[in-house]
Amino acid sequence: MFFEIIEEARKYYEDYGRQNDFWIRSRTSSKGQNRSNDVTSVLFVCAKEGKYIPKTEKDGVEGNDERVKDDKVLPKKRKRSCSTAKFGYNAHLRIKRDKWSLKWLTKDICYLMSKKIR
């Protein structure tokens, strides 16, 4: 499948995502090895692609258990996470710039989702 511009490929995959109830995001893009700074490939993924891995076991927990004068233990407070939840979905579209035709070529596309989004 060929696209004239990156935005055309993004619109195609956004439309597919809407039909299947998921949002997309650009995960990565790479530039050519020449000095022109032109983007040569882009990877669009489901917005919930990937897995959340905390940095440490106590990530998101602040403070210690505290005792009040009545010997009641107050539980630790949890920090609120503002990041987007990640669930391991694998739908993606990878496009690459064809240097001969100067169009965007679909290199890899996965329409399948590993889980159903609700």
Give structural attributes.
about 120 residues; mainly beta; five-stranded antiparallel beta sheet; two-stranded antiparallel ribbon; about 35% strand
Domain tally:
1
List low-confidence stretches: 57-61
Distance between the termini: 30 Å
Number of helices: 1
User: Strand pairing plus helix content: what structural class?
Assistant: mainly beta
Task: Please report the total strand number as a whole number.
Answer: 9
CA radius of gyration is 22 Å
Reported for the largest beta sheet, the result is:
5 strands, antiparallel
Order of helices and strands: EHEEEEEEEE
Mean of the pLDDT scores? 75
Strand order of the largest sheet: 1-9-8-3-2
β content, as a range? 25-35%
Tell me the overall shape: globular
> What is the helical fraction, as a range of percent?
10-25%
How would you sum up this structure, described in words?
The protein is mainly β and 118 residues long. It has one domain. It contains one helix and nine strands. The protein has a five-stranded antiparallel beta sheet with strand order 1-9-8-3-2, covered by helices on one side. A two-stranded antiparallel ribbon has the order 4-7. Strands 5-6 form a two-stranded antiparallel ribbon. The longest helix has 14 residues, at 6-19. Mean pLDDT is 75; it is low at 57-61.
Topology:
Layout: E1 2-3, H1 6-19, E2 24-31, E3 39-46, E4 61-62, E5 66-67, E6 73-74, E7 77-78, E8 92-97, E9 104-110
Antiparallel strand pairs: 1-9, 2-3, 3-8, 4-7, 5-6, 8-9
